[in-house]
Design goal:
mainly beta, four-stranded antiparallel β-sheet, 33% strand, WD repeat, repeat, WD40_repeat_dom_sf, DCA10
Length: 115
């Protein structure tokens, strides 16, 4: 009956955390905005005065092709040149392999990463 299906559901629940990244506490009081590339393989993550490019593995595979057995750290596949102040936001172009980063001092920089 219903009771058997309910307990089967609870047995099949698996942990949902697959990947994580550790970030420095630079630019305190601000939320840093990460973004995914259009194909979902690369993440642009503000990292102090730089932008780190992270992926699920060193080959920049899709998530469905790189599901780990236990949670693990994202792989750094690139790092942009540093800015004068903390980077707070990063956004990928929906059409090109390019992203823009916005810094605390109001400056904006464009980057076409080579992976």
């Amino acid at each position: 009956g219903y009771r058997g299906r309910r307990s089967a559901f609870h047995r099949n629940v698996k942990p949902r955390l697959l990947f994580y990244s550790e970030e420095p506490n630079i630019g305190r009081g601000f939320i840093k905005e990460q973004s995914f590339s259009a194909d979902g393989r690369v993440i642009a993550s503000p990292f102090g005065n730089c932008v780190r490019l992270l992926a699920f593995n060193s080959r920049c595979s899709e998530l469905c092709d790189s599901v780990p057995l236990k949670p693990r750290s994202l792989t750094q596949v690139g790092l942009t040149v540093s800015q004068q102040s903390s980077i707070l936001a990063s956004t990928f172009s929906p059409n090109h392999c390019m992203f823009v980063a916005g810094a605390r001092d109001g400056s904006v920089s464009f980057c076409s990463p080579k992976l």
